[in-house]
Amino acid sequence: MASLQDLRRKITSVKNTQKITKAMKMVAAAKLKRAQDRIMSARPYAHKLRGVVANLGEHASRTSHPLLHKRDGSKTELLVITSDRGLCGGFNTNILRRSVEFLNEHSIKGEQVSVSVVGRKSVDFFKRRTWTIRQEWPGVFDRLTYEHALDIGQDIIQQYNQGSFDQLYVVYNEFKSVMQQRVVVEKFLPIESLEEEPLELQATEGLKGSYLYEPDEHELLETLLPKHFEVQTFRVLLESAAAEQASRMTAMDGATRNAGELIKKVTLFYNKTRQAAITTELMDIVGGAEALK
Amino acid sequence: MATSTDAAQTGKILLEVVTPDKLIFSEQVDQVSAPGSEGDFGVLPGHSHFLSTLRIGELNYRIGEKTQFMSILWGFAEVTPTKVTILAEIAEKAEDIDVDRAREAVTKAEKHLERGGIPSEVEEAKVSLEKARLRQKVAERLHNTQGHS
Question: Does A45 touch chain B (CB under 8 A)?
Fold first, then answer.
């Protein structure tokens, strides 16, 4: 049986842990607020741009721009987005599990797969695996700016144009709400027209090819498509950043609560043990006094 | 489902101005005129499909008798018969621009340009001057229209 001393030590230790988890929860909550504001204000632009590109994809011919052109090759790249830090519940585990599933599925189909990773956690994970890491970006989430998205976006477009891979998928955590994050796998390249905006597409049906471009189609696509890709990359990074903080906040809230319960239990046990010890001592004294009579 | 004829009947077109930071504006308007990279263009309800890049310039739109102004810095515009979507890098409504600050920025940029320097700096100064002039112009427009009404 644990001695009183041990129990006291245990209580202090859990209390200290609780203090840390509580502090982490507060920090995560503050960061979440900021991250949430950023993703909320970035979403309309990204979605509108996607709408424009989707409409355009319906009209422009597939061969008019390399980013629209479907290639026959079987080289697939997966861009994995995790966090830089741990202690955020199932956030990274879910992403990594889904990535491995994805990579297995596609290698079985005979595709040549490679990964690009964002966030220290996935860098560490894939370093210990056999998949080819094409590029890594650790530490972008410390201070996330549009420049990071630009960096990543431009590198990927360049590699894509050079033929390092024929299609690109992205796996990331989408920020749905504070309580809910969703693992999403999305195809980013080649850019496909999206079925998500059927209303607009129906409205433009029968008008195919009647788009006017200024300047000409080629030049316009040349600026619009890479921009679209960068903005989508930025949106995905922001989604992930917000989801990470939300996930951490929930995890730390749970941890704080569990620590509280543990403290209660151990304190109860401690008091019971202490009382038992006092009772035993008392019995001894009474017994001793009785014997002296 | 709205078609181009519907739009022509209602006589309104939806104008949406979005920047990476936020949705600036979304309302039904009667007429829009925007700074395309190859020249300004005007849009009325029922306009045919059109896609253009934008330069630094002034966007204005009319609701009823009232015309409003906005400064636009680069971006894209998509026009459909029922909707105009402006995706700008930076956009500001005239009423949000501080006239005095805009004027100061113009003088500062002019001075910077006079001073000269390496080509990239001059180029940068030119752009900031253009930006500052535009903001000043747009902000003063508001002043003038208010004076009239």
Answer: yes
d(CA B75, CA B34): 11
Facing residue for A220 by CB, picked from B49, B51, B85: B51
Burial of A159 (0-12, 13-18, 19+ CB in 10 A): middle
A211 touches chain B (CB under 8 A): yes
CA pair distance A18, A265, nearest whole angstrom: 14
Round to whole Å and give the CA distance between A125 and A107. Answer: 19
Residue A207 pLDDT exceeds 80: no
pTM equals 0.80
Secondary structure string (H, E, C) spanning B20-63: CCCEEEEEEECEEEEEECCEEEEECCCCCCEEEEECCEEEEEEE
Residue appearing with tokens 């014997």 = A291
* Mean per-residue pLDDT, B11-40: 89
> Which residue ranges form the domains of chain B, and what is each CATH number?
4-95 (2.60.15.10), 97-145 (1.20.5)
d(CA A191, CA A242): 25
